[in-house]
Design brief:
Elements lengths: L1 E3 L8 E7 L6 H6 L4 E4 L15 E4 L6 E5 L4 E5 L4 H8 L4 E2 L11 H6 L7 H4 L6 E7 L5 E4 L5 H7 L8 E8 L1 E2 L5 E8 L2 H11 L5 E6 L8 E8 L9 H6 L9
Parallel strand pairs: 2-4, 3-4
Antiparallel strand pairs: 1-2, 5-6, 6-10, 7-11, 8-9, 8-10, 12-14, 13-14
Length: 254
């Protein structure tokens, strides 16, 4: 038994961890250790990735890239693949994930099960909007290949289903073309919540990525609003010194 916590570290209860390693024996492993729940990197909010005093099936070893179509941008990979590893491999090739959360240490299976969102939710939607298909292993040993057009009820229940329909084993996801890793960014301090709402409304049409930090201690709700768009190659810094200058940090408040 292993003490496990979720990202919030509110508990550290004992779990029996069963690593899922070999795709050929997954059904046997799962049926020999019922009941349980799939577990990726444990970055979920709350306790949805935990099963105190019970079994978790760790998917981290299922991290293989299976195939990639450079013409369409469709990536087929195992569910334990980290979003970090996808970005590291494909951004230099001018492809990237359409949706990324606040941490790169998330598995593809976890991203689908939680239907995660990024800072561009108003433009690109959530992670599940870019999943073409997935392979689901049920606890009775059956395997369901599902997509919006095939076993669509299983697909809809699994995207955002918190792992309760079974274990996501593989997935095909759509990557997007990008010029590269750089963003044109704008950081705007605001004094109160009225200014925040005005900035949010003004930024929605012209900026893909928007996020804000709000000072919950200050009486007026001051904060910092950050917005960004992907930079064309003509805007990229050309030298190492320029790259350092391209990422300045200015304290938002005196």
């Amino acid at each position: 038994m292993v003490n496990m916590s979720s990202w919030g570290r509110l508990s550290a209860d004992e779990h029996k961890v069963v690593p899922l390693v070999d795709a050929a024996t997954l059904a046997t492993q799962v049926q020999q250790s019922l009941p349980g729940i799939a577990h990726g990197m444990g970055r979920s909010y709350g306790d949805v990735c935990l099963n105190p005093q019970g079994t978790v099936w760790s998917t981290r070893a299922l991290d293989h890239f299976i195939r990639f179509d450079d013409a369409t941008g469709i990536l087929h990979c195992e569910a334990g693949t980290l979003l970090r590893d996808i970005q590291r491999l494909f951004v230099p090739r001018d492809w990237m994930l359409p949706v990324t959360p606040g941490t790169q240490m998330v598995t593809v299976g976890g991203a689908i099960a939680n239907d995660i969102h990024g800072k561009n939710h108003h433009v690109m939607g959530s992670f599940g909007d870019h999943v073409h298909s997935l392979r689901l292993l049920r606890t009775d040993g059956s395997v369901i290949d599902c997509a919006p057009q095939e076993h669509s009820d299983w697909f809809a229940a699994t995207v955002g289903g918190m792992g309760l329909t079974g274990i996501i084993v593989q997935a095909s996801i759509q990557l997007r073309r990008v010029a590269g890793p750089w963003l044109n960014t704008d950081t705007v301090p605001y004094a109160n919540l009225d200014e925040f709402f005005q900035l949010a409304d003004e930024s929605e049409a012209g900026w893909e990525h928007t996020v804000s930090w709000i000072d919950c201690i200050g009486a007026r709700g001051r904060g910092v609003f950050m917005r960004a768009n992907h930079a064309p190659r003509t805007d990229w810094p050309r030298t190492g010194a320029e790259r350092k200058l391209a990422i300045p940090f200015t304290p938002p408040f005196p």
